């Protein structure tokens, strides 16, 4: 599933290509909205909210999408053949005279009233890359369920919006605890440090083509633990392990991280 920084990048690509221009092509390939025609309307802006994308359109409409595991938006010059996947995977097309955006494999795609956006994203916690980022509220929400494993709490978008499986594993490593440690057993200052680190990392990576959480510049070492099962830890040399946490694979270092292991 894309992380918040990936969604931020997607929103800004879409905004740069579509915002402030009149739509000359509109095709929503989901049964409920197949007859909707947005051509002739100006696309006003594309805003990320956690892992959600909100494309606001003249006339008080918002096209809401969520990429989940493998959805994607691709932008091409109008007239250029898209290459984001087979045509039958395209769920949405929005275009103007210069650029056309194609939404592939979108599990969530709905056209809603802009005034009703809260129904789609109002449940989300503070947005790590949003203008209204509130670290104190994010910490409060994390602490509200002390028996919950840290990894699950970090992935819950109602606590703070934008963390996915990559950052969940990396943040637990940087906090030196396993993702299975209950939130209530963290040292008192750890939730605040976790939230601050999450914000710093997503801010640092939102403008990078390749995500990085390490400070080493050795080739092939952008992340501490995620995706490195069986490889040596960059800090202590222990073999990185992986296991399921809920319905996700998580990674951790048995030498650097303290706490229960599934």
UniProtKB/TrEMBL annotation:
<keyword id="KW-0227">DNA damage</keyword>
<dbReference type="InterPro" id="IPR010663">
    <property type="entry name" value="Znf_FPG/IleRS"/>
</dbReference>
<dbReference type="InterPro" id="IPR015886">
    <property type="entry name" value="H2TH_FPG"/>
</dbReference>
<feature type="domain" description="Formamidopyrimidine-DNA glycosylase catalytic">
    <location>
        <begin position="2"/>
        <end position="103"/>
    </location>
</feature>
<keyword id="KW-0326">Glycosidase</keyword>
<dbReference type="Pfam" id="PF06827">
    <property type="entry name" value="zf-FPG_IleRS"/>
</dbReference>
<protein>
    <recommendedName>
        <fullName>DNA-(apurinic or apyrimidinic site) lyase</fullName>
        <ecNumber>4.2.99.18</ecNumber>
    </recommendedName>
</protein>
<keyword id="KW-0234">DNA repair</keyword>
<feature type="region of interest" description="Disordered">
    <location>
        <begin position="202"/>
        <end position="224"/>
    </location>
</feature>
<feature type="compositionally biased region" description="Basic and acidic residues">
    <location>
        <begin position="202"/>
        <end position="213"/>
    </location>
</feature>
<dbReference type="InterPro" id="IPR010979">
    <property type="entry name" value="Ribosomal_uS13-like_H2TH"/>
</dbReference>
<keyword id="KW-0479">Metal-binding</keyword>
<keyword id="KW-0456">Lyase</keyword>
<keyword id="KW-0862">Zinc</keyword>
<feature type="domain" description="FPG-type">
    <location>
        <begin position="224"/>
        <end position="258"/>
    </location>
</feature>
<dbReference type="Pfam" id="PF01149">
    <property type="entry name" value="Fapy_DNA_glyco"/>
</dbReference>
<keyword id="KW-0378">Hydrolase</keyword>
<keyword id="KW-0238">DNA-binding</keyword>
<dbReference type="InterPro" id="IPR012319">
    <property type="entry name" value="FPG_cat"/>
</dbReference>
<dbReference type="InterPro" id="IPR044090">
    <property type="entry name" value="Nei2_N"/>
</dbReference>
<keyword id="KW-0511">Multifunctional enzyme</keyword>
<dbReference type="Pfam" id="PF06831">
    <property type="entry name" value="H2TH"/>
</dbReference>
<dbReference type="InterPro" id="IPR000214">
    <property type="entry name" value="Znf_DNA_glyclase/AP_lyase"/>
</dbReference>
<comment type="similarity">
    <text>Belongs to the FPG family.</text>
</comment>
<dbReference type="InterPro" id="IPR035937">
    <property type="entry name" value="FPG_N"/>
</dbReference>
<keyword id="KW-0863">Zinc-finger</keyword>
């Amino acid at each position: 599933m894309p992380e918040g920084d990936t969604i931020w990048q997607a929103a800004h690509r879409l905004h740069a290509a579509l915002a402030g221009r009149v739509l000359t092509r509109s095709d929503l390939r989901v049964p409920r909205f197949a007859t909707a025609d947005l051509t002739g309307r100006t696309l006003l802006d594309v805003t990320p909210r956690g892992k959600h994308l909100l494309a606001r359109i003249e006339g008080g409409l918002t096209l809401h999408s969520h990429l989940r595991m493998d959805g994607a938006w691709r932008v091409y010059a109008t007239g250029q053949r898209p290459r984001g996947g087979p045509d039958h995977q395209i769920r949405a097309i929005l275009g103007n005279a210069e650029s056309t955006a194609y939404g592939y494999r979108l599990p969530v795609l709905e056209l809603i009233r802009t005034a009703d956006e809260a129904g789609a994203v109002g449940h989300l916690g503070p947005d790590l890359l949003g203008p209204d980022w509130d670290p104190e509220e994010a910490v409060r929400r994390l602490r509200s369920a002390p028996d919950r494993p840290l990894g699950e709490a970090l992935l819950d978008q109602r606590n703070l919006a934008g963390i996915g499986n990559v950052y969940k594993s990396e943040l637990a490593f940087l906090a030196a605890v396993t993702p299975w440690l209950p939130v209530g057993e963290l040292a008192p200052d750890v939730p605040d440090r976790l939230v601050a680190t999450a914000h710093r990392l997503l801010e640092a990576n939102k403008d990078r083509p390749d995500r990085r959480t390490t400070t080493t510049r050795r080739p092939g070492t952008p992340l501490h633990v995620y995706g490195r099962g069986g490889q040596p830890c960059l800090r202590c040399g222990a073999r990185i392990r992986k296991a399921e946490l809920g319905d996700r694979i998580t990674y951790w270092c048995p030498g650097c991280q303290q706490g229960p292991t599934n």
